[in-house]
């Protein structure tokens, strides 16, 4: 019988587990704090538990993990890219970004991705499986141990589509926010989606206070269908209706991610059409000079083109910023390091 992963359990679930193995309810709180506050790697580390209980936990349960395989540190800005090994030799990656306000970590939610966005390396080999809540947390815990520094904000924008792993992601957010864990405020958590409409409505009804970032990347369905296959089932009119529902329900501003691809979606006409689409919406646009992916034909827009695009949108009253490019010397973009590692391993 498969062992249960205690790192993925809420305190209430852990209390139920303890009762099932004949232990007192208060033991759950001790174990929960060992896992999430002290970030113990094994049951043998939990020194205020009896030897008998530790042996019982070893037999009945497990702690999911993410073991650092490789680490690259940018000489330009200190951004650090981590390659992690999970159970069954699955490989994922995360990125640590240092800002004036604190450390942010961008984590993966799936091994690979099945969304097929043509400008992203994460999706080249499809998806292998979903990550558990414990495996998502492990990425953050291991980065904190490696750096000796606290993580203050988390972005679900690495490999994978978070809403394609909905239940595990919601559990992860609640564990991350738990006062007996890392206690990271929901407003310091950003979830990025390519626009799975039904799941966006479901997420809105959770009434969380996280930031929702929607990968838009085009002003119309014609362009979006070419670069984002998912949009064929999630057209822009319906997608923007879901975005409005989310911001109306949560009172939170939507962030629209827009990867600037030379000659594809970066013309002034595209900017004009986009401004019409997003008029009167509670939103912010984040322009991203796309990373060159050798398997694709796309090149990033010139700095001048990006600035002109941003200036136009701002002139129309739509708050627009250009994402600061971090870790360009270490392949910090989604999927690039993992892709290279898997090619070498093969």
Automatic annotation (TrEMBL):
Names of the cofactor(s): [4Fe-4S] cluster
Pfam families given in the database record: Radical_SAM, RlmN_N
Single GO MF annotation: rRNA (adenine(2503)-C2-)-methyltransferase activity
GO cellular component, one term: cytoplasm
Radical SAM core domain ranges (all copies): 99-329
Gene Ontology biological process terms from the UniProt entry: rRNA base methylation; tRNA methylation
Catalytic activity: adenosine(37) in tRNA + 2 reduced [2Fe-2S]-[ferredoxin] + 2 S-adenosyl-L-methionine = 2-methyladenosine(37) in tRNA + 5'-deoxyadenosine + L-methionine + 2 oxidized [2Fe-2S]-[ferredoxin] + S-adenosyl-L-homocysteine; adenosine(2503) in 23S rRNA + 2 reduced [2Fe-2S]-[ferredoxin] + 2 S-adenosyl-L-methionine = 2-methyladenosine(2503) in 23S rRNA + 5'-deoxyadenosine + L-methionine + 2 oxidized [2Fe-2S]-[ferredoxin] + S-adenosyl-L-homocysteine
Family matches, as Gene3D superfamilies: 1.10.150.530, Aldolase class I
InterPro entries found in the cross-reference section: Aldolase_TIM, Methyltransferase_A, RlmN_N, RNA_MTrfase_RlmN, rRNA_lsu_MTrfase_RlmN/Cfr, rSAM, rSAM_sf
List of residues binding S-adenosyl-L-methionine: 160-161, 192, 215-217, 291
PROSITE patterns, alphabetized: RADICAL_SAM
Alphabetical UniProt keywords: 4Fe-4S, Cytoplasm, Disulfide bond, Iron, Iron-sulfur, Metal-binding, Methyltransferase, rRNA processing, S-adenosyl-L-methionine, Transferase, tRNA processing
Compartment(s): Cytoplasm
Main function: Specifically methylates position 2 of adenine 2503 in 23S rRNA and position 2 of adenine 37 in tRNAs.
Further comment found in the protein's record: Reaction proceeds by a ping-pong mechanism involving intermediate methylation of a conserved cysteine residue.
NCBIfam families: rRNA_mod_RlmN
PANTHER family recorded: 23S RRNA METHYLTRANSFERASE, RADICAL SAM CORE DOMAIN-CONTAINING PROTEIN
Protein name, entry field: Probable dual-specificity RNA methyltransferase RlmN
Organism field: Candidatus Fimicola merdigallinarum
